[in-house]
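We modelled the chain as a single entity of 252 amino acids. Its sequence is:
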Amino acid sequence: MIAEGCLAGVGAIFGGHIERHFRVGEIAVQAGVICASTDTFRIEVRGRGGHAAKPHETVDAIVVAAQLVNIVQTLVSREIDPVRPAVVSIGRIQGGTAANVIADRVSLTGTIRTTDPLVRTRLFEGLQRMVRESGRLFRADIDISFSEGYPPIVNEPAATELARLAALATVGPDGVPGLEHPSMGGEDFSYYLDRVPGCFVRFGGHRADLPDGAAHSSRFDFDEGVLPVGAEFLARVAWATLERKRDVHDPG
């Protein structure tokens, strides 16, 4: 959309996400970093397959992969400053064909989340080092590849103040909490904020009688009373931004 020119002539941008951690009538507004970067990695383990009764003749790719799952967890717990948010999670592992066959190949796919560019670089480098040395340790061929994901969401201070005022006018002072800490989730709205000042907020959609399904799960549901709240907020913040722009260009 950006490549097609959707931001041409745009001076500010605002958006939001329904969030079940807040009740309907709450709009969470916070300046600075509020979401993490999201990168994906894929590890390919190639060993030497064989009969399960003769493991000494093989290089068991499943055992190597299992060790890697545990080893990479030490990146965050022992190599990253604990006051800097970071996550390395392996969410998918595939390998093996039968109970009595030692696998010769396993693939692992995971995600890297952080709000700090230096931490991000260190995690990339650490994963590469662990993969390289694990290959030597276990006599396996191991490769890792990365796919760069979303950058962090960074709310611009002036735009965030406009968003806060619009939220106050929409839901009142008791309905505008801040965010205690950034979410380690990712959001492609960050691409817009890399180019245009703006603010991304959270619209409360919690309702106690609905299933407690996480966002993006098959059980996710929300109180649709949030929809007019979000619509009113977006209308107010658009109007306030246009008024601010008019005042700057025509102070008299």
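As a brief sanity check on the tokenised model: The longest helix spans residues 226-249. The chain has two domains: 13-36+152-249, 37-147.
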